[in-house]
Amino acid sequence: MKEAVLYEEIGEGRVKCTACWRYCILKPGQTGFCGVRTNLDGKLYLSVYGLVSAMHVDPIEKKPVLHMFPNSRIFSLSTTGCNYACAYCQNWDISQRRKAEGTEITPEDVVDEAIRLKCRGIAYTYNEPTIFMEFAHDIGVIARKKGLINIFVTNGFETDESIAMAKDFLTAATVDFKGNAGTQFYRKYISVPSAEPIYHTLEGFRKAGIHLEITDLVLPGIGDSTEELRNMLGRILDSVGNDVPVEFLRFHPDFKLQDLPPTLVETLERHHDIAVEMGFKYAYVGNVPGHRYENTYCPGCGRVIVERNVFRTTKIMLTPEGECIYCGYPTGIILEGRKSAPPA
Ligand code: SF4
User: Fold this and answer.
1) Cα separation of 116 and 336, whole Å?
2) 34 plus 115 within the same structural domain
3) Which of 55, 129, 261, 283 is least buried, going by the fewest C-beta atoms within 10 A?
4) pLDDT per residue over 145-175, tens digit each?
């Protein structure tokens, strides 16, 4: 438990949390939608500060981050709580636990553990990191000083205040859209009014110099509309351009949507093809082991330049500076050992 930074006192003991776009207004004794930020006597406290619900070492490709430091080990951690209420969440046992539970650990000890386990960086993942931004910040600042990268796997509901704090430490963000960003989908299955704030967040991350990747979880019949897909992709293009990687993820039944079948692979391929047709240089299909669209194809010559298999990068046909070895196309993929300054 620690006093939060991202909030304002708005009179009569009430506070406005500024960590995410819900902007919860809380009277003394009230806790926000995420379940981990509570008004105690007119001050906002983060109840999961120093309390971790899960810690694992994952390959960076599992986050997914596909265009930075392939085959790196990433120390992944979460707290409890979330600012979304996804009916299909695969981590629902921690994200929908709206109370502070977990193993006590200091920011210093998180970083030491990541280094001991020979990790290239730390990912704040499994539940939404924006809700524990102050804890992530304190870990991330130490991690950056010690040469580690920091990755958010996020639903993109960061406010400008959160992004300003993220600038101190965040190297990369994978921003997850759900169900092609359809408004009815967001309302019915996530309890969020719309995906609109996410486009603003993308721009904010890009302006802050944070490496960006995008995923979209495609749900059969309820979150796979072509019209909404085109609208979402058009908005992403307007916000951050066509060099951001986009990956279409297969849904697997979980939590309250046990009866919905997995997404057809053809549906994911159609999404991939529409993204390419609309001008995206790097489109992928995820959660389909061995699929050809796990690979990166060179936008210049069309050849496979990064080969992947599930969460392993198996072949890289790029110069250390990320250029295609066949045609010299500058992909922007960030490799270890490049001469230009590596991201921190
Ligand atoms: S982080 Fe939690 S308390 Fe703050 S605005 Fe979002 S849901 Fe509300």
Assistant:
1) 20
2) no
3) 261
4) 999 999 999 999 999 999 999 999 999 999 9
Which residue's CA is the closest to the ligand 1 atom numbered 6? Answer: 20
Do 11 and 97 lie in a common domain? no
Q: Give residue-wise pLDDT tens across range 54-64.
A: 999 999 999 99
pLDDT at 98 (0 to 100): 83
Residues 121 and 32 in one domain: no
C-alpha 307 – ligand 1 centre gap (Å)? 40
Say which CATH number the domain at 188 has.
3.20.20.70
The yes-or-no verdict on residue 341 having pLDDT over 90 is no
* Closest residue to atom 5 of ligand 1, CA basis: 23
Q: Which residue has the higher pLDDT, 94 or 226?
A: 226
Which ligand 1 atom minimizes the distance to the CA of 130?
1
CA of 160 to the centre of ligand 1 (A): 14
Provide the number of structural domains found in the chain.
2
Domain that holds residue 241: 51-313
CA of 206 to the centre of ligand 1 (A): 23
Ligand 1 center to residue 17 CA distance, Å?
A: 6
